[in-house]
Amino acid sequence: MFDRRLVHKAKEVLDACREGGLKLATAESCTGGLIAAVLTNVPGSSAVFERGFVTYSNEAKAEAIGVPADVIRRHGAVSEQVARAMAEGALSRSRADIAVSVTGIAGPDGGTAEKPVGLVHFACARREHATEAAAISFGDQGREKIRELSVMTALDMVLAAIGQGGLVA
Asked: Cα separations (Å) of 149 from 3, 33, 67, 118, 135?
């Protein structure tokens, strides 16, 4: 069902959370729940995966995880500010210890010169740690590939946050 590399990475994340006694939440836009799906594909994930928020619309971002509407208006849904607010909102509205968020433009439509197809913003929030964020432009590789790369990147961010208490630049 899923690429074996994604399944392996999901297992690695779940094992790291289990070893660290951490619960995990996700807040997803362009991946549409794919991170949660990959994680819950692993047997025993319920011991670690606390919940997932699929906040595809701007209204869902505001209503479900408290992303301020003015932040979305000022910066756009695909922005570092919204990614940070999504991760922090998922953390505050769950019982998780760590939350990862993804918002981007998977295409084939929706890109602009300023925010092209393939631009994805990520954030990882962990209780009592600074929220980390990253932006990656994957290029216009097709919707499926951009979403797959986004899942892998989000899982890598969680591993970095768990392993070092923060992300390495």
From this structure: 11, 14, 24, 10, 12
Partner residues linked to 24 by β-bridges: 49, 98
| Backbone φ/ψ region at 168: left (φ over 0), alpha (ψ -120 to 50), beta | beta
Give tens-digit pLDDT for 18-75: 999 999 999 999 999 999 999 999 999 999 999 999 999 999 999 999 999 999 999 9
Q: Residue 31 is encoded by which pair of tokens?
A: 């991946």
Neighbours of 128 (CB within 10 A): 6
Domains of the chain: 4-164 (3.90.950.20)
Q: Which is nearest to 68 in space by CA: 84, 56, 54, 53? A: 84
Stated pTM of the model: 0.95
Q: Which amino acid makes up residue 95? A: R
Q: Write the CB contacts of 114 (distance below 8 Å, at least 6 apart in sequence).
A: none
Quote the DSSP letter at residue 93: T
Return the HEC string of 20-69. Answer: HCCCEEEEECCCCCHHHHHHHCCCCHHHCEEEEEECCCHHHHHHHHCCCH
Residue with tokens 């954030």: 123
